[in-house]
Amino acid sequence: MTGSSIEWCAGFFEGEGNFRINKAKGGKTYPCIQLAQVYREPLDAFQKCFQAGKVHGPYGPYGTNKQPYYQFVVYGDEAVKIANLMLPYLFQKKKQIEEALRDYHS
Fold first, then answer.
1. Within a 13 Å sphere around the CA of 106, how many CA atoms are in the beta-carbon half?
2. pLDDT digits (tens, 9 = 90+) for 56-99
3. Cα(31)–Cα(70) distance, rounded to whole angstroms?
């Protein structure tokens, strides 16, 4: 790994990210990690740490008192790999990931 530490990434993900199983047309499912943030730099650091995924944006602003935001996304086996690397350092999101992966693999 390069850039920020896995521990830092896990903390950032704990506050700003989510892990879910998306369903594509035709019913095929795939894992996804997503983080959104008004500041691009932390998302770039997360992407650099794992050398995976992409940062998109800016999007918006939408509504009143909103700022444009950026989004990091990674799909498939890379999302599972990143999730497993972060698992030892997670608290609330650990359960979210474990449940999603259990459903995905069953």
1. 6
2. 999 998 888 789 999 999 999 999 999 999 999 999 999 999 99
3. 20
Mean pLDDT of 20-25: 91
> CA distances (Å), 5 to each of 10, 16, 47, 61, 89, in order?
9, 16, 11, 31, 11
What's the pTM value of the predicted model, to 2 decimals? 0.89
Q: How far apart are CA 32 and CA 3, in angstroms?
A: 22
Identify the structural domains of the chain with CATH numbers, from first to last: 6-105 (3.10.28.10)
| Distances in whole angstroms, Cα of residue 51 to Cα of each of 1, 61, 70 | 8, 28, 18
CB contact at 8 A, 73 and 34: yes
For the chain, counts of helices (H) and of strands (E): 4, 4
